[in-house]
Write the structure tokens for this entry.
Amino acid sequence: MTKSLQSAAEIIVGKIGAARGLDGTVKIIPLTDFEGRFDGLEKISVGGKIFHVEEVKHIGGQIFMKFAGVDSREAARALTNKFLTVDRKNAAPLADGEFYTFDIIGCEVFDGDKKLGTVTNVLKTGSNDVFEVDGNILIPALKSVVKSIDIAAKKILVDENAY
């Protein structure tokens, strides 16, 4: 039902891991549900600074990236733990009934007219997502429970009797 993390203008798609080799290549820790998200990228924001992507490699199920101007192991290490972001307009399209996690977080949850609270986190359980409301209510993101989601109004309507 939801796809991973972020803010309104920028979408976090990954995090820089360790340097690989001596030429400035870095390991990418994907924080996106979209395979191939990094293929074909020409530029990306790393820690708020735009970098041109020279190369993306997939090796043994891992992703490695080389940025223009990052030409040494030391320069690559300086990027470790920084987030990779893209403009929201470049977000991967979603199917009907799918929402980005960052759009769900902050939505107010209602059972009829009764406000239950605000979504503070979306937990990935494997079988279905779970909306954490005010840190103490867990609502499974199932069609039988979630009656409607209005991202523009930041409102989610649930049937509390269904869970």
